[in-house]
Each structure stands twice: as structure tokens, then as C-alpha cells.
Design brief:
The protein is an all-alpha fold. It has helices spanning about 1-20, 25-40, 45-65, 75-95, 100-125, 130-135, 140-150, 160-205, 210-220, 225, 235-255, 260-270, 290-300, 305-315, 320-375, 375-385.
């Protein structure tokens, strides 16, 4: 009896322990299941696209918070240089006046040349004539993050603070693999979509000759080959797609940035090819809000001033919405480049396969002709006569 009671007590304790642990297991399983589903979704095409946009927004906000604390000491130094240059020129003018014109020109040229050299040195060291708040706006920071993770690297915006440089290294370490994943997944999605569209258009165009092709296939006994025929997107179609996209960007950037069509086309090509020289960058105008205020004040005071100049300056500096559109233009353009790469790779594989088959048939025909020429007369007659 004692053993049975002990066994019953042991079983009751085990059941109670299982019942007490069972409520804690379902929440853990739910959390694991949710995490697994989230990771699976993020590895899909839509998830990777959303993730890279969120990652770029996170990087833009972080760089804005870090880099706006940078104090540019060159601004005060440039103001001092400008003041000293004006004072020296005034002293020279007061000294020589108009009696010795050659001496006045030589001395002023030396001062202006020295001023020019010092300003050029400051510009090489990163002076752009704008405050960190003007440089690191949200759209500009978004474009900077895109240039980092896509490995374009325009170079028009660089972090100045030690924290910004360290964060750039960490941001690129995680962002570049994420972009590669986006590049591969988006290329597959766009390739499938474009392939489906091309096949649909091809079938609509060939609908009239469908029955005639079937009759010819039945007469030749190759209906199965006709059904197994695979439609491949030609490389020319891929080139037309990417050229049309580049032309669209050329017109857009030429109107927004006031570039020539050649410079705008040059920028689109170098950006989509991930060269990124940095000589042409959207939103990199040196015109500031102070310049616009001075131009508007001049128009109010001077009636002969041209109001169109102020309008053009406002168009150049109004880059917030335009830079956001530029961000998505470059992001979609990279996906189209990946799509063209996938489709052209498939076309090249089919061409190589056809070349191999043609080469194999050519070698077999050459071998048969060689054997017929070098073999017996009966073999030759039997094969060719």
C-alpha cells in the first residue's frame, strides 16, 4: 500500500509540475513563432525593401543628430581672412591712390592671390560655406546613407566628428550586406515581372499565327517541341528598359538641378554604375538661405534687378521633396540594374547552350564526312548515295 501511495503522490506531483510549466511554454512558443515569421518576412522581397528604407531613415536621423553638433572653426577664419583682405586693399588704395597705378595693381594682385590660395586650402580641407544644420538636412542625410550602403560614395558630404566617422564604419558594415540582399531579391522580383509581361505581349503578338504554327508542327511531328519552347527575354529589351530609365532621370535632374542634359545623363550613368565621382550631386548647391534673403532685399531696393534670378535660386535650394524622390529613383534604379543582369545572364546561358549544341552537331557532321572519305567505298556509298 505504501508503494502505491508513493507512486500516486509522485504522479500527482509530476502532473502538477507539468500543469504549472504548461502555461509558460505557449508564450515562449508564440514569441519564437513571431520572431521566426518576422525574420522570414524580412528575407522576402517586400521585407528587404522595407527594411532597407527603414535602415536608411534610421541612419539619416542618427547622422543628423551626430553631425549637427560639429562646430566648424573655418567659418570664423574665413570671415577674418575676408576682413583682412579688404583692409589691406584699402590701405594700398589709400597709400598709392591713383598716382602709381602699376604699384597699386601689383600689390592688390598679391593680396588677392594670397587670399585665393588660403580659401582654396580651406575648401580642400572641407569648408563648403554652410553650417552643419544646412548641410545635414534630412533628405541630404538620406542621400548620404544611400551612397554609403550602395558603395557609390559621392564624397560631397562626409562626417566630421569622431562619433560620426565611427558610426559610418558600423553603419556600412551592416548596411552593405543588407543592400546586397536587396539587390539580389529585387532583381529576381523585377526579372520575373518583366519576363511575365514580355511573355504576355509576345503571346498576344503571336496569337494570329498560333493555329498555323500548330498545323506546321503537326505536319512535321514536332508539336511537343513547340509546346516546350521557352521564351527568353532578349538582351536588347533589357537595354531599352535601362536606357529609358536613364533618360527619364536625365530629364528629371536637368529640370530640377539646372544641369545640362549631358551632365545629367553623365550623373545618372555614373550613379547607376556605382562609380560616384561626386562632381555632380543632387542638392549640393552652395546657395544658402542668406543668399536668398540678400537677393530679395536687393530686388526691393533696386528696381532694375532681375526677379528671375531670385526665382532660380529658390528653385535650386528647394531640395527637400526632390532629394526624397532622388533617393527612391536611385533605389529603384539599382533594382532595375539587377533585373537586367538576371535577364541578360539567362539570355547568355541560352546562347551558350545553343552554341554548344551547334558546335556538337558541326563536329559530328565533320566526323561523319571524314569517316566517309577515309572509309571503304561501300560505307561511303551507303551513307551518301
Amino acid at each position: 500500500m505504501s508503494k502505491s501511495m508513493r507512486n500516486s503522490r509522485h504522479n500527482s506531483r509530476a502532473e502538477s509540475s507539468n500543469s504549472s510549466s504548461s502555461p509558460s511554454n505557449p508564450p515562449r512558443k508564440r514569441v519564437k513563432r513571431c520572431c521566426r515569421n518576422f525574420v522570414t518576412f524580412m528575407c522576402t522581397q517586400v521585407g528587404v525593401g522595407a527594411l532597407i528604407v527603414l535602415y536608411a531613415i534610421f541612419g539619416a536621423l542618427s547622422f543628423m543628430h551626430i553631425e549637427r553638433k560639429y562646430v566648424d572653426e573655418n567659418t570664423a577664419y574665413v570671415s577674418e581672412l575676408r576682413h583682412n583682405c579688404a583692409e589691406k586693399m584699402w590701405n594700398i588704395t589709400e597709400k598709392f591712390n591713383t598716382f602709381d597705378r602699376s604699384e597699386w595693381q601689383n600689390n592688390t594682385l598679391d593680396i588677392l592671390q594670397q587670399y585665393q590660395t588660403e580659401i582654396a586650402t580651406l575648401i580642400k580641407n572641407g569648408y563648403v560655406g554652410r553650417t552643419p544644420e544646412q548641410i545635414w538636412s534630412f533628405p541630404a542625410a538620406l542621400m548620404f546613407c544611400l551612397s554609403v550602403i550602395t558603395m557609390i560614395g559621392y564624397g560631397n558630404m562626409v562626417p566630421r566628428t569622431p562619433w560620426g566617422k565611427g558610426f559610418t564604419v558600423i553603419y556600412a558594415t551592416f548596411g552593405i550586406p543588407l543592400y546586397i540582399l536587396y539587390f539580389l531579391n529585387m532583381g529576381k522580383v523585377l526579372a520575373r515581372s518583366f519576363k511575365f509581361l514580355y511573355r504576355s505581349l509576345h503571346e498576344c503578338a503571336q496569337e494570329r499565327n498560333k493555329y498555323e504554327s500548330r498545323l506546321d508542327a503537326l505536319e512535321n511531328g514536332s508539336l511537343g517541341a513547340l509546346q516546350r519552347k521557352k521564351i527568353i527575354v532578349p538582351s536588347t529589351a533589357c537595354l531599352w528598359v535601362i536606357i529609358s530609365y536613364i533618360i527619364t532621370g536625365t530629364i528629371m535632374f536637368a529640370n530640377w538641378e539646372k544641369w545640362s542634359f549631358l551632365n545629367s545623363f553623365y550623373f545618372c550613368m555614373t550613379s547607376l554604375c556605382k562609380i560616384g565621382f561626386g562632381d555632380f550631386v543632387p542638392g549640393a548647391s552652395l546657395i544658402t538661405a542668406a543668399d536668398i534673403d540678400a537677393a530679395s532685399l536687393k530686388i526691393k531696393e533696386d528696381a532694375s534687378a532681375d526677379p528671375e534670378d531670385l526665382f532660380n535660386m529658390q528653385l535650386i535650394t528647394d531640395q527637400n521633396s526632390k532629394l526624397a524622390i532622388n533617393f527612391f529613383y536611385m533605389l529603384i534604379g539599382m533594382g532595375l540594374v539587377s533585373m537586367c543582369y538576371n535577364l541578360m545572364r539567362e539570355a547568355v546561358r541560352m546562347k551558350i547552350k545553343e552554341i554548344k549544341e551547334d558546335t556538337k552537331l558541326c563536329l559530328e557532321d565533320t566526323r561523319a564526312r571524314f569517316m566517309g572519305c577515309c572509309g571503304t567505298r561501300e560505307y561511303y556509298d551507303e551513307d551518301y548515295y
